[in-house]
DNA sequence: GCAAATTTAATGTCAGACATTTAGACTTTT
DNA sequence: AAAAGTCTAAATGTCTGACATTAAATTTGC
């Protein structure tokens, strides 16, 4: 094995990288069992705790799963779309919050990406997707809805639109973009009139989707982006003036 | 702490989740130092190895970094775009390779997403981005280039295009989509005539970007998608016929 | 007052042990 | 002979205690 015993201050990371590379290169295939921790410790000439730390690193990335008991062990894990979603959302959210990404930049990226679904969603959306979109619009127009609940429903609306494209890869890539925006959106307080305008645009988008008019969906999303950016700019300007 | 001592078979995962949630919720801020491993072990009523396994899980996701020596310890890490790129690419690549995603689906998603940069890239691209695109086109027309090198250059070309949009969030989200396609593209062997057609489309896209004609970039990408899908369909049909 | 040596606090690693889980083999009973 | 229960072994999960290594802080020497 290519573990460097001269640099004994990173062994678990080295071992994790070694195994990860094997998985990526396809030299360890899905559901294949890794050697037991004791055997790995032997192979790499390290102690079992060190091997375990390496395995925990891989488990954190959903690359392996472990099973206890006889004939248990560590197995190469088939990453599900759901797990990948969750990881992507966590990473995206933290990336935005920790790097002072401006609302403007994030919003621009989010709508640019979402527009890429417009044509496909208009063409392929099922009745279920349409119903989900309509249901969220209805929820959004309920009085007494908190800003957070409004934002959550907004996310659900857009995810239904994205899922309408019926392309799991597209849904996965967009999950991060759409969900990671939520904490930023939550910084905004919406007036009743703001909500009305957003809901009207959502209705426009839902109608266009129902009519399978991709260009209209595209334009609706652009209008929604302009509306959102204007609204946010107003809120931030007002907040800045108070300080 | 909310660690469940009744279920003593997942302690390190529970502790990792606990700390991760604190970071996500902003209750632990960037560069803040966590308690030492011994103190954490005390707080959670577990042993140090268990705490260490939890910390390694977090380190694997770049949520913390550790430093040795006096006044060392685990610190909340500011996730850089570069780290996030790398993670996204790993996850996306494995997701595609492990879930039998068809070339068609992945290709459709990739070009749909990339088209979302067309307008912005055409508007904002710098001379550097243009030069990078031209350089890759030149490399692609070199004779004797292996298929792998051709694909790598293709990825570099598209990343230059994406980076031209000058939106780090967009670049980050697209990195996964573009790079994860590479292993799938590598399954294809390109004839000289295939390469010519692709290079011609790349030149068309570069010209449109230089002319800041967003619609032409958009159409160029669509043409490239059609070309790629046709090419791949031919290769796969031929391969199927041989078996 | 500054430079070198020492101390100290922290992570990184190791060794060995026990606890717990689980599949499979074995035994017993019906 | 089949079904039920029991036992065993192999593996992960955890604990204890120790030592190695690193690097900042402190003390000492001049």
Notes on the structure:
Two copies of one chain form a homodimer. With 243 residues, chain A is mainly alpha-helical. Chain A folds into two domains: 69 residues, Arc Repressor Mutant, subunit A (Orthogonal Bundle), CATH 1.10.10.10; 161 residues, Up-down Bundle (Four Helix Bundle (Hemerythrin (Met), subunit A)), CATH 1.20.120. The first copy, chain A, is built from twelve helices and two strands, in the order αααββααααααααα. In chain A, a hairpin with a 5-residue loop joins strand 1 and strand 2. In chain A, helix 1 packs across helix 3, helix 5 packs antiparallel against helix 12 and helix 7 packs antiparallel against helix 8. The model of chain A has no long low-confidence stretch (mean pLDDT 92). At the A-B interface, helix 1, helix 3, helix 4, helix 5 and helix 9 of A face helix 1, helix 3, helix 4, helix 5 and helix 9 of B. The structure holds a DNA duplex (30 and 30 nucleotides).
């Amino acid at each position: 094995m290519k573990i460097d015993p001269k640099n004994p201050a990173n062994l678990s990371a080295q071992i994790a990288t070694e195994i990860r590379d094997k998985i990526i290169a396809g030299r360890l295939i899905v559901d294949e069992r890794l050697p037991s921790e004791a055997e790995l410790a032997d192979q790499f000439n390290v102690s079992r705790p060190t091997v375990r730390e390496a395995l925990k690193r891989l488990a954190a990335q959903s690359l392996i799963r472990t099973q206890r008991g006889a004939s248990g062990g560590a197995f190469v894990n088939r990453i599900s779309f759901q797990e990948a979603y969750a990881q992507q959302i966590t990473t995206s959210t933290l990336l935005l919050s920790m790097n002072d990404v401006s609302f403007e930049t994030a919003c621009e990226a989010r709508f640019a990406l979402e527009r890429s679904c417009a044509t496909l969603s208009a063409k392929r959306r099922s009745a279920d997707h349409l119903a989900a979109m309509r249901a969220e619009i209805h929820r959004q127009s309920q009085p007494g809805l908190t800003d957070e609940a409004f934002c959550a429903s907004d996310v659900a609306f857009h995810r239904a639109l994205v899922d309408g494209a019926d392309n799991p890869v597209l849904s996965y890539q967009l999950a991060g973009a759409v969900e990671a925006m939520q904490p930023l959106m939550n910084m905004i307080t919406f007036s009743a009139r703001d909500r009305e305008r957003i809901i009207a645009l959502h209705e426009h988008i839902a109608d266009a989707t129902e009519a399978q008019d991709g260009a209209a969906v595209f334009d609706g999303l652009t209008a929604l982006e302009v509306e959102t950016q204007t609204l946010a700019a107003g809120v931030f300007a007002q907040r800045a003036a108070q300080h």
